[in-house]
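To start, an entry.
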Amino acid sequence: MPDAVDVRSAARRSIHLRTVEDIAAELDRIAAAEARGTLTTTGHWTPGENLDHVVKFMEMSMDGFPERAPWWVRAIGTVLKPFLFARLHDANALKPGTIDNRGRADFIEPTPGATSADAIDRGRRMIERLRSGERFEQRSPLFGTVTHEQWCLVHASHCNLHWSFLQLGHDA
């Protein structure tokens, strides 16, 4: 079933997250918009599904992924990893509509009907775990070994992409 929204041309906010603390601050802004009742989306996921997907990916990079990509995809990922990771310093490195996980990595897809409140709470718990010294240390199902610092860049870039679809409303 095609998406009702063409994410390649949907209106998006410009955000430039670079660090875990940037992610935490943006999560607080999103939570404030949720509390005001002004959090909306221009993407094809609800705000809760958007947040769930991003937080789920962060949780898995700390706690482990349920599966790996096929060997040939991992082989390509290993070769492309240095080039792709070098691009992550650009806040707009990930482009909407270029990756479709459905049917290939369903475990990373958002939980249908996920609520913003639940995903925000999980995101805040993830930030607290990081602040208390835990690290992103799991092997990527696509790229293999990834350092904590590289994971932080991946997550900042991933948040830049997905959270740019979240509209915070007035007083944002």
Observations:
- The beta strands are 40-41, 166-167.
- Residues 13 and 164 are 5 Å apart (CA to CA).
- The mean pLDDT is 87.
- The radius of gyration is 16 Å.
